[in-house]
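Milestone M4 deliverable, item 7.
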Amino acid sequence: MNEAEAFYLPHEGNRFFSTTATVGPWSPALQHGGPPAALLGRALERLPSRPLVRIARISVEILGPIPLDTLAVAAEVVRSGRSVEMLSASASAGDRTVLRATAWRIAAEEGRSPAIGLDGPPPPPLPGPQPQVFFAGVDRFPYGDALEWRFVEGGYDQLGPATVWTRCRIPLVRGEEISPLCRLLAMVDSANGVSAELPFWRFTFVPVDLNVVLHRHPRGEWVGMSARTFIERDGVGLTQTRLFDPEGYLGWSLHTLYVAPR
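Output delivered:
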């Protein structure tokens, strides 16, 4: 079990110490993309806003390896408006920008439109507790231990599509309750890993971005995803993911992948 008290510790305003809980399976010196993506989501949610608006789309560009280092975060409203607004955020380590995000914030008013396409079958039920098993040859890694994983289909140690429920065991930032959007962002960057189609020890499949579109935000501490990966022979791929919570489906995400032999 990860012993860090949070993914990040606040430091001097917009700067955050990255704890070991952010470390992915590749190197003890590199962060998984989920926690820093959630940190940008936090900055976007904290921008000044009017009542009855919500982030409906967030796209995160991963500009390179994210070191286990202090991250400086900045955010701004790029385009203001009564109905839609464009937001922007970035995270830097030293003098290098490692992540950049844009988001659309949309005015949401109950009853403005009919509900369409929301009456399909419900998501799979939440399974009971399971042993936490990761990639073949990777016994544990801190980010993996910082979330609880309950698989309905597939698994880290199985190739192919996967459906999994997750919850964060620790806060995003020490002393704060993690928001529903940040809870989802912390999870969904792992979609290409849980639905890997190639063995982890023979191939690298690196996401260069994360694109999430939500018709509503999740509710409750558990969020889930059904993920599937597609790869062309030239090493370009994508991971398509449907997102859900205990109340139903709520959106989709897409990763663009760089795939190559190790």
